[in-house]
Design brief:
Layout (H helix, E strand, L loop, with lengths): L1 E6 L3 E6 L5 E6 L1 H12 L5 E9 L3 H12 L2 E2 L3 E3 L7 E6 L5 E6 L16 H4 L5 E5 H5 L3 H16 L3 E5 L10 H12 L4 E2 L3 H8 L4 H10 L4 E5 L5 E4 L4 E4 L13 H14 L4 H15 L17
Parallel strand pairs: 1-4, 1-9, 2-7, 4-5, 4-6, 9-10, 10-11, 11-12
Antiparallel strand pairs: 2-3, 7-8, 12-13, 13-14
Helix pairs in contact: 1-9, 9-10
């Protein structure tokens, strides 16, 4: 069995059906990837666990029950009395682009490495792959990040790998300098980097995918898959470079979680032993399916190859 830990925050998602009607769901970048990775790896011995903290309210319990139905392990989910999940509202324009409104300053996930309960950072040591994102970093305080970085080192020392999507969102940070510092520090602990070029341009000023790759390699990343939106994916390892075209989407309803889905299919393929090029093709294919549906996580019946 291949064991994967995804570290981050799941929130309540309220999606506008019309101006006055909202549909309840659950989402968050690392949680989206965890669900899609569990689906993609279900028949290949890939077990995905989610590492986070939630409250003791009914919505937290509903989250946990949903994760279990999606075969995402919950052994390392801390429950913090009196706290609750964060919340976001989502609107999409006619082209499928989304805008968000967040209510998450008191999210229980911010406490995941500060709770007096089980040491969640120590739980990461035995995994074959630990996955996290820039949003994971943005919700943690400085001491929690230090604990996380030590845990990543311990996991790698035991033969595990770290996959990291920089996933920069300006509103999650006090300023760009703080984001750059934390993200670069994490990249120094990363084996597989999964950046989006638009984010890297905004935060680091990368002019193109080659500049993005060079910067990641200078920090020690062995494998970089740069997401280019409609232009597909550019992949670089120590032995080669590949450009993989985007898969054609039959329609664009909601671009939420396209990158999260790509990451899941890419990592599942790589964990199965697939080449970077074939893994990117699978990632692009899943992303094209996801953006044809509303919400962060599409029905299982809509997954590529579903019967």
């Amino acid at each position: 069995m291949i064991r994967v830990a995804a570290v981050g925050e799941c929130m309540l998602e309220l999606r506008h059906v019309d101006d006055e009607t909202l549909a309840l769901g659950f989402g968050g970048d690392t949680l989206n990837t965890a669900v899609y990775l569990a689906r993609c790896g279900r028949d290949d011995g890939i077990q995905v666990d989610y590492v986070t903290a939630v409250g003791d309210d009914p919505y937290s319990q509903a989250m946990i029950e949903w994760w279990r139905r999606e075969n995402v392990g919950t052994e390392h989910v801390a429950r913090i009395p009196g706290r609750h999940p964060g919340l976001y509202l989502i609107r999409t324009d006619p082209t499928g682009e989304r805008s968000f409104t967040y209510y998450r300053s008191e999210s229980a996930a911010r406490e995941m490495f500060r709770t007096a309960g089980p040491r969640l950072d120590e739980a990461l040591h035995g995994y074959d792959l630990v996955y996290l994102s820039g949003i994971t970093l943005s919700i943690l305080d400085a001491a929690s990040r230090e604990r996380l970085w030590k845990a990543l080192d311990a996991a790698r020392a035991r033969g595990g790998q770290v996959a990291f999507d920089t996933n920069y969102r300006r509103w999650g940070w006090p300023d760009a300098r703080a984001a750059r510092r934390a993200i670069e520090r994490t990249l120094e602990h990363t084996d597989i980097a999964l950046p989006t070029l638009d984010d890297e341009r905004q935060l680091f000023g990368d002019t193109d995918e080659e500049a993005c790759v060079r910067r990641h390699q200078s920090l020690g990343c062995k494998e970089i898959a740069v997401k280019l939106g409609a232009d597909g994916t550019f992949i670089a390892t120590r032995t080669g470079r590949w450009r993989v075209p985007a898969a054609r989407a039959h329609r664009v309803v909601d671009t939420t979680a396209a990158g999260d889905a790509f990451n899941a299919a890419y990592l599942a393929a790589r964990l199965r032993g697939g080449s970077p090029e074939s893994a990117a093709a699978q990632g692009n294919r899943l992303a094209a399916v996801v953006i044809a549906h509303a919400g962060a996580v599409i029905p299982g019946s809509a997954m590529p190859g579903a019967r």
